């Protein structure tokens, strides 16, 4: 025990380290004559400043001081410095709370003491630890630590990464030594195949470049050495530009182009990343203010900018972005904010609130690099993003590994079901693009459409009249958002988001567009099953279908046009039946959205070839029946037992029987909806099922005929022929009700409405 003067107090210091580290002044016991209270205060003061309150290990300050003494005594370069970093500690803290996190840190300290009983140990901050020890059996000790941490909680993927540096004799800069050990540790973070690494000469340049980035960051901002490059984002359905991602590129006078992944990581560690992100947003707003007059379409340009998790901690990022946006008079819908998935946490309520705050103000918030983190699916459950950007690694093995396509398809399907849009990064080939378009991935980005480039060449590329890429009109964005919400992978593609189920199928499916005339009809999307459906009914190509429809020569094409009108007016799923080339088909249709810019409407169409479901030996009989059906606009089955069922219907009226399945209720609803008021009483009398046998005896015919003025769903009034064909089925009186248009309109003079009795 020796006596020292500490902060004006005479103290007795007791060394608790082994004899060979006798120079280290560790925990103290203080005796101050006649100052009992002051003794307690001083003892507490020194312990708090010398040791970490949670783990009892040294603080970083005392570790560095004592490590300096170790290095002075070590003439052979035999002291190993190890930097430890606990991966996924954040998830542990969130699961078990603050106290649980502290308990885990104390357990780490205990494991380190067991592994290095004669070492100098310290907790630097958070979940980072440092050890200085004789360079002996290091690999065995590291394996012990790895296994002990893993066994502590097997429900979480807890891993301890380590970096090792053994300084040569004569190197005594403790800060430099610790940096090198940390750099070795960072070299294995995020890797599953390696738990520790050794610092070597190849990492020396990395450390120098890291110091350069931090030291020269503000100078780079001031001299605009950090440039903003732009890469287009594409709508897969139309191949139009929907925006540009603004990306930082550092062109250093001393080092040339510094890799963005490197300097972004360094700036995050130095808590400077928010300065960079705000700089990018300001520069991008300035750039786009200049180029909007550059050429046709640039007034439609939108920008995606990246935000770090730390932005939400280091500054009021919402207020800062709002200030810049208002300064440059940029609307919220021109800025899209991308947050990297690895920065998100499923239980970070503050970040959730900030995301919701941006969205409430009118910004779109995207998740970037989806699939690159540990808990992608849980993150989707907690956050409501407008767009998910699928990490480019999903496409890297496309065409080589069949699982890649299956995973991407499943992710797109899942995103549709939870109401989020998708963008695939890393698209480099037409094959990849066609696949993404086929599965309904709404947007894509990659070298196929353009590499990141500075503003001037980007503006030149997309402003030319002969440019292969054009801008999507800003006012059409909402239209395409609604169109893209159709889940082309679902068994129920006509269902809205809340109506969808989890089935996937290969039903024929198409998305079509039409304006006020048939000439504006076109296809936006078809799947493979739809093309096969067309071939099955004798149509060779989409071009043939479009040409036939636009001509309007066939009844079924005019029927399709009226069906689209009816869908637009009702906003509901509608359907109609038709025959073509000996095939009897049913087509289901629903209006999705309207584009106010071009005044066109989008519809999702799902046809069914019912003939493909018939037995081959009945083809001739059914073909004859289909041709008979093509004469009528609707055929219904009615029974005296009260059952009503629609057998066939074209596009001009609703089935009715899907709303009311009783004969009386169906007839009353039909009369109220489609028969002109002055003829409704006569109509209901004509369909009086209780007098069928009596009436048949009177007229001595096998059917009844009547004329009534009838509306269609478009409100047009025509004179129609109504036929009732009675028969018995299982001893019950039944009839078929068949309706067809007359070869003229209601102005036909010789025809009087009502039943024909002679």
TrEMBL record:
SUPFAM superfamilies: EAL domain-like, Nucleotide cyclase. Gene3D superfamilies: 3.30.70.270, EAL domain. One of its GO terms (molecular function) is cyclic-guanylate-specific phosphodiesterase activity. Residues 77-201 form the GGDEF domain. SMART domains: EAL, GGDEF. InterPro entries: Cyclic-di-GMP_PDE-like, EAL_dom, EAL_sf, GGDEF_dom, Nucleotide_cyclase, Rev_trsase/Diguanyl_cyclase. It comes from the Bacteria. This is Bifunctional diguanylate cyclase/phosphodiesterase. Residues 210-466 form the EAL domain.
């Amino acid at each position: 025990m020796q006596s020292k003067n500490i902060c004006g107090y005479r103290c007795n210091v007791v060394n608790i380290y082994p004899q060979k580290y006798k120079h280290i002044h560790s925990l103290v016991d203080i005796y101050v004559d006649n100052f009992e209270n002051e003794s307690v205060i001083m003892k507490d003061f020194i312990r708090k400043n010398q040791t970490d309150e949670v783990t009892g290990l040294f603080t970083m300050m005392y570790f560095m001081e004592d490590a300096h003494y170790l290095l002075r005594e070590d003439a052979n370069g035999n002291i190993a410095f190890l930097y430890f970093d606990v991966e996924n500690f954040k998830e542990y803290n969130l699961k078990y709370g603050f106290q649980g996190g502290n308990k885990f840190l104390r357990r780490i300290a205990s494991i380190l003491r067991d592994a290095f009983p004669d070492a100098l140990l310290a907790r630097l901050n958070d979940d980072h630890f440092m050890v200085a020890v004789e360079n002996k059996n290091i690999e065995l000790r590291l394996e012990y630590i790895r296994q002990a941490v893993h066994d502590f909680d097997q429900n979480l993927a807890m891993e301890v990464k380590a970096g090792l540096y053994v300084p040569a004799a004569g190197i005594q800069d403790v800060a430099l030594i610790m940096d090198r050990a940390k750099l070795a540790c960072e070299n294995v973070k995020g890797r599953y195949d390696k738990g520790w690494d050794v610092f070597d000469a190849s990492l020396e340049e990395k450390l120098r470049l890291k110091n350069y980035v931090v030291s020269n960051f503000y100078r780079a901002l001031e001299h605009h050495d950090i440039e903003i490059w732009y890469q287009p984002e594409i709508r897969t359905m139309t191949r139009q530009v929907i925006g540009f991602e603004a990306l930082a590129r550092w062109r250093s006078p001393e080092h040339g182009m510094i890799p963005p992944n490197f300097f972004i990581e360094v700036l995050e560690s130095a808590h400077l990343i928010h300065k960079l992100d705000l700089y990018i947003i300001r520069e991008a707003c300035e750039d786009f203010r200049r180029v909007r007059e550059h050429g046709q379409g640039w007034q439609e340009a939108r920008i995606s900018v990246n935000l770090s998790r730390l932005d939400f901690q280091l500054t009021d990022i919402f207020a800062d972005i709002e200030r810049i946006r208002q300064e440059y008079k940029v609307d919220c819908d021109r800025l899209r904010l991308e947050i990297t998935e690895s920065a998100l946490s499923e239980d970070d309520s503050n970040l959730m609130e900030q995301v919701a705050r941006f969205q409430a103000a009118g910004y779109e918030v995207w998740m970037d690099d989806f699939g690159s983190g540990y808990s992608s699916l849980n993150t989707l459950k907690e956050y409501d993003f407008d767009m998910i950007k699928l990490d480019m690694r999903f496409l890297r093995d496309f065409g080589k590994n069949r699982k890649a396509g299956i995973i991407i398809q499943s992710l797109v399907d899942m995103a549709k079901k939870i109401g989020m849009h998708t963008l695939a990064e890393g698209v480099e080939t037409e094959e990849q693009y066609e696949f993404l378009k086929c599965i309904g991935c709404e947007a894509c980005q990659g070298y196929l459409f353009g590499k990141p480039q500075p503003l001037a060449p980007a503006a030149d590329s997309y402003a030319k009249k002969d440019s292969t890429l054009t801008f999507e009109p800003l006012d059409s964005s909402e239209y395409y958002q609604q169109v893209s919400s159709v889940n082309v992978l679902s068994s129920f593609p006509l269902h809205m988001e809340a109506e969808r189920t989890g089935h996937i199928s290969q039903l024929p499916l198409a998305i079509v567009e039409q304006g006020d005339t048939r000439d504006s009809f076109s296809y936006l999307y078809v799947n493979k099953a739809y093309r096969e459906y067309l071939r099955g009914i004798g149509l060779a190509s989409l071009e043939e279908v479009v040409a036939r429809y636009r001509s309007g020569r066939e009844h079924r094409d005019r029927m399709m046009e009226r069906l689209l009108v009816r869908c637009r007016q009702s906003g509901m799923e509608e359907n109609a039946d038709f025959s073509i080339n000996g095939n009897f088909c049913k087509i289901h249709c629903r209006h999705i959205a309207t584009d106010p810019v071009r005044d066109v409407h989008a519809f999702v169409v799902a046809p069914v070839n019912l003939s493909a479901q018939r037995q081959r030996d009945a083809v001739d009989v059914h073909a004859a029946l289909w041709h008979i059906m093509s004469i009528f606009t609707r055929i219904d089955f009615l029974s005296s037992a009260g059952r009503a069922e629609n057998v066939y219907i074209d596009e001009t009226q609703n089935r009715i029987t899907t709303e009311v399945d009783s004969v009386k209720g169906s007839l009353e609803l039909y009369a109220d909806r489609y028969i002109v008021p002055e003829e409704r009483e006569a109509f209901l009398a004509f369909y009086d099922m209780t007098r069928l046998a009596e009436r048949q005896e009177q007229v001595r015919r096998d059917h009844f005929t009547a004329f009534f003025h009838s509306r269609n769903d478009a409100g047009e009034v025509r004179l129609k022929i109504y036929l009732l064909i009675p028969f018995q089925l299982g001893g019950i009186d039944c009839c078929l009700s068949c309706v067809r248009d007359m070869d003229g309109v209601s102005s036909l003079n010789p025809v009087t409405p009502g039943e024909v009795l002679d």
